[in-house]
Amino acid sequence: MSAKKLQLIETAFDLFYRKGVHAVGINEVLKVSGVAKKTLYNHFSSKDELLLAVLEYRDDRFCEWLERACLEVVTGQASDRVLAVFDALDDWFNDRCDELSPFRGCFFINVSGEYGDPNDPVYQHCALHKQRVRAIVQRVVSEGVYPALADGQSEGVNEKVSLVDAICLLKEGAITQAYVSGDKDAALKAKEVARLLLVSGG
Q1: How confident is the model at residue 148 (pLDDT cuts 50, 70, 90)?
Q2: Signed CA dihedral, 54, 84, 69, 183: sign only
Q3: Which residue from 7, 201, 18 is spatially nearest to 104, judged by alpha carbons?
Q4: Which residues contact residue 201 at a Cβ distance below 8 angstroms, ignoring those fewer than 6 apart?
Q5: How far apart are CA 101 and CA 123, in angstroms?
Q6: 3-class secondary structure per residue, the chain
Q7: Quick one: pLDDT at residue 73?
Q8: Of 37, 15, 19, nearest in space to 27 by CA
Q9: Distance in angstroms (rounded) separating the CA atoms of residues 117 and 59
Q10: Per-residue pLDDT at 151 exceeds 60
Q11: Phi first, then psi: what are they for 54, rounded to 5°?
Q12: Is the pTM here over 0.85, yes or no?
């Protein structure tokens, strides 16, 4: 990716995340980035095309960060990897995460709220992000709680799916609580609920 294209994406992300997509026009992106209009349209034919690139950029950065935060946990009990999801969120909520911008809620929830049509490519990209994050959580649960569960083995499958669902719901609830209510301890509260689920077997 060229330096100018990355500059446009990073600038647009910062503006969209802070102000909302519809509140930011192309001219503001150009002014803040210092990139010429012709250069922008060499890379993106429309604002929505720029937004899709921004969503892909944030998706990659967020998922790479979450994977590192959870899957690199090698000490303690196996279930510590699952609880690490909430430790990572706690760092994000409290702006202790260098890889992500200062916390302003979930960018994908915010954007999907501005694009309400489920058939819109922007909305669909937001939904795909949530599916990708769920896949990370599923991997964390598989490796941390059900490592012996072989492919095709039915015993434990329903319990694993239920635990993945519960962790994802706790994660989403914590993000909303932290942003909307300003509760910066939301991730730690959700972690304690997750711990109880793990102790009880999901």
Answers
A1: very low
A2: positive
A3: 18
A4: 159
A5: 22
A6: CCHHHHHHHHHHHHHHHHHCCCCCCHHHHHHHHCCCHHHHHHHCCCHHHHHHHHHHHHHHHHHHHHHHHHHCCCCCCCCHHHHHHHHHHHHHHCCCCCCCCCCCCCHHHHHHHHCCCCCCHHHHHHHHHHHHHHHHHHHHHHHHCCCCCCCCCCCCHHHHHHHHHHHHHHHHHHHHHHHHCCCCCHHHHHHHHHHHHHHHCC
A7: 67
A8: 37
A9: 20
A10: no
A11: -65, -40
A12: yes
In angstroms, the Cα distances linking 38 to 12, 13, 33, 44 are 16, 20, 13, 10
Tokens 């202790």, located at residue: 96
* pLDDT tens profile 47-104: 999 999 999 999 999 999 999 988 776 555 668 888 999 999 999 999 999 889 999 9
Pull the structure tokens for residue 174.
Answer: 């914590």
Q: What are the tokens at 190? A: 């959700």
Check: CB of residue 137 under 8 Å from CB of residue 149: no
Tell me the residue type at 66. Answer: L
Q: Could you give the dihedral angle defined by the CA atoms of residues 71, 13, 33 and 27, in that order, rounded to the nearest 10 degrees?
A: 170
d(CA 63, CA 69): 10
Residue type for position 120: D
